[in-house]
Design goal:
The structure holds two protein chains of two kinds. By secondary structure, chain A is of the alpha/beta class. Chain A has nine helices and ten strands. Chain A has a six-stranded mixed sheet with strand order 6-7-8-3-9-10, sandwiched between helices. The relative contact order of chain A is 0.16. Chain B has a two-stranded antiparallel ribbon with strand order 1-2. The mean pLDDT of chain B is about 90. Classes of the chains: A alpha/beta, B mainly alpha. Chains A and B meet through helix 2, helix 3 and helix 5 of A and helix 9 and helix 10 of B.
């Protein structure tokens, strides 16, 4: 469904993403992991049209969308969320989600009704009239997710939707993401919460210094010495092993 | 308890009913003039509010749209003798074209915030200078004076109500500005209940998030500036038909730009009622200042402007949602008290 080939993005002399390639097949949940500053968010921005890559291509459903504008890409069925959430603070939760719904729904009443339905799916059903600016971090992350979902995407790019959440909230959102996939949406996610990555993903890519250094099932990745060396460090390697065992 | 949607609807019916009935109920010419001026500034504010309040693009040069419409409305009648009912459409179209031009240049290159404000200010000033210097087209600094129609039979055809018979000569201009303002209300009301309005507000809150959700910020902002120009142009048309005169200072001077954003910001940006509330507040305070401070210090022109400046700073600092925001807070407190805690 998504095919990224040898994508490179430079900022002046700094190569943020260096010849990265990845594919996502329909119905999959694929994770993109890597240490801070590895270039994950930059890669996301290039895929979703917020940055123009210097080299390489992005193909969605067989159509080349490299360098297209974000709103065109969204209309073609791929939508991203932001790591630093961007709620429309002056609008209510329902209105926030309706903005996404309007991508495919012209009527105001229909869009609001659809927004209400999506809000229910992500556990925001009781907060429809609350101002999005007044929500907790967990609430804002859900609004971010719900808005993206309301555009009725085929492929959803999630940028650290679990960062800053507590254990219970993470469990809830993991369940929600699984439900979204079961409803037929393909998902590519950036995540630091390993427990969630292990639990959710069919496959994972590891990005380090802008390059993909490993690819495979979460368990394979966790045992890949390159990944342990480059990304996890020796202290974290032990923790990772035990997490892998407990989730296997 | 009545739900807030019904309360709002009733409020609107009462307000519009009162405005429609005003000429019958109020016999004082001074008060009618006061209300008419208030509605005029409210219309300017409503025009500004579409782009500034709903779209978050603060313009300091809305005189561009007022002035372009005023000049087109005046010149086409004066030079070519066209009917004001025809020139009106050209005046609206001309303002929209200027809006599209300025919008294209600004938004294509992603100008936001104070940069956009400066560009609009610069364009208004450029038009100000041009209208003064292109004497063959605009009559320059002398301005354009339309001939006064004194034939009651021709009152409607010339869109002039001074000699229009007993009722229209009193209230013709009042109903003109009221009708224009109601159009402004209708447009902003539509923004509150439409896809375009939702997308415009999304762009105001966060452009990146909006574009991630399939919104083309450029297209939406272009739509907003054109709509804003169209509503503001109505004020220019009214002005020319009422005063039969326009010159560079009236048309493109900073006065109208400032009046427009004052009314909207003081009243409450991004609300339907804000510009009217703001305008009423400004004019009441202005009159009050002239009466009291003027009486104390003697005739000092500009005292009211100093006061407005102070009020504007205070509102921006402590009441970003303006008078409408204040009323909402008071209303909620009132309802909470009445509901005895279960509200």
């Amino acid at each position: 469904m998504l095919e990224v080939s040898s994508l490179t993005k430079r900022f002046g002399g700094l190569v943020a993403v260096n010849g990265a390639s990845l594919t996502v097949a329909e119905g999959e949940i694929v994770s993109l992991i890597g240490p801070n500053g590895a270039g994950k968010t930059t890669l996301f921005a290039c895929i979703a049209g917020f940055l123009k890559p210097n080299e390489g291509s992005v193909v969605l459903d067989g159509r080349n969308i490299t360098g297209r504008k974000p709103h065109e890409i969204c209309r073609r069925g791929m939508v991203r969320t932001f790591q630093v959430v961007k709620p429309f603070a002056g609008l209510s939760v329902q209105e926030n989600i309706a903005v996404g719904a309007h991508t495919r729904i012209a009527g105001r009443a229909d869009a609001l009704a659809f927004a209400g339905k999506i809000a229910g799916q992500v556990g925001l059903g009781a907060m429809l009239d609350q101002s999005a600016g007044d929500l907790t971090v967990a609430g804002r992350k859900r609004v971010e997710l719900a808005r993206a979902l309301a555009t009725q995407p085929k492929l959803l790019l999630l940028d650290e939707v679990m960062a800053g959440l507590n254990a219970t909230e993470i469990l809830e959102i993991v369940t929600i993401i699984q439900q979204i996939r079961d409803a037929g949406v393909t998902i590519l996610l950036i995540e630091h919460v390993m427990q969630a990555v292990m639990k959710l993903s069919d496959r994972a890519y590891v990005l380090n210094y802008g390059e993909i250094i490993a690819e495979g099932s979460p368990v394979e990745i966790a045992h890949d010495p390159k990944v342990v060396e480059a990304y996890l460090g020796h202290g974290a390697s032990e923790r990772m092993k035990s997490a892998g065992v407990s989730n296997a | 308890m009545m739900d807030s949607g019904n309360m709002q609807r009733i409020g609107w019916v009462v307000l519009i009913g009162a405005l429609l009935a005003a000429p019958f109920a109020i016999s004082s010419g001074r008060w009618m003039d006061f209300i008419e001026i208030t509605l005029f500034a409210a219309l300017l504010g409503q025009g500004w509010n579409i782009l500034g309040g709903y779209g978050g693009q603060y313009s300091f040069g809305h005189a561009l749209f007022f002035g372009t419409a005023a000049y087109l409305q005046a010149l086409l009648q004066y030079k070519l003798g066209w009917s004001p009912w025809l020139t009106l459409w050209i005046a609206i179209g001309g303002s929209v074209a200027v809006g599209a031009f300025v919008g294209f240049l600004s938004f294509r290159y992603g100008l936001r915030g104070s940069y956009f404000a400066l560009v609009t200010l610069a364009f208004a000033e450029a038009f100000h200078v041009l209208s003064r210097s292109l004497v063959t087209v605009t009559e320059g600094g002398r301005g354009v004076q339309l001939p006064l129609n004194q034939d009651p039979e021709q009152a409607l055809a010339t869109f002039q109500f001074t000699f229009a018979g007993p009722f229209l000569s009193e209230a013709g201009y009042y109903y003109t500005i009221l009708a224009f303002l109601l159009i402004g209300f209708a447009v902003t009301g539509w923004l509150n209940h439409s896809r375009f309005g939702a997308q415009l507000q999304a762009v105001r809150e966060d452009e990146d998030a909006a574009s991630a959700l399939g919104i083309d910020p450029f297209r939406v902002k272009m739509g907003a500036i054109c709509l804003s120009a169209a509503v503001t142009s109505l004020a220019g048309i009214y002005y020319v038909q009422k005063f039969l005169f326009v010159d560079p200072g009236i048309a493109y001077g900073p006065g109208k730009s400032v009046e427009a954003l004052f009314a909207a910001i003081i009243g409450g940006v991004g609300t339907v009622l804000g510009p009217l509330l703001g305008s009423a507040f400004i004019h009441l305070v202005g009159e009050f200042a002239k009466e009291t401070i003027g009486a104390m210090l003697g005739d000092r022109p500009g005292v009211d402007l100093i006061l407005f400046g102070i009020i504007l700073v205070l509102i921006l600092a402590y009441m970003p949602r303006g008078l409408v925001g204040l009323l909402e807070v008071l209303w909620r407190k009132f309802m909470a008290k009445r509901g005895g805690g279960n509200a």
